[in-house]
UniProtKB/TrEMBL annotation:
Residues 13-100 form the LtfC/p132/Gp6 beta-sandwich domain. It comes from the Bacteria. This is LtfC/p132/Gp6 beta-sandwich domain-containing protein. It comes from Aeromicrobium marinum DSM 15272. It holds the Pfam family LtfC.
Amino acid sequence: MPEVQFGADPLPLKVILTSGADFRQVVQADDGEPWPESLSAELRFSSGQTWAATVDGTDLVWAVDKAQVAVVIAAEPSRVDLFAVDGTSDECWARGVVVICA
């Protein structure tokens, strides 16, 4: 009998944080079309911190200062989720681990 699956299966995710360094990441839209203006995206850490991306045309951009990176590192998160929110709909696009480099 074939398997039946409901719901989204988030992609694997690894977020690498380096002590004393800023965090920079850009995610480009696969189809080259601009992200919807109503879209927001954020990294949600298991320790409770959240980093929002800036939506810039076809790019989702994270630019996090090293001071905020230090706060997240100190909280020792083990898991991280990438959520997209479009209007009232939250969708988990990716789920994974946090790797901390000293």
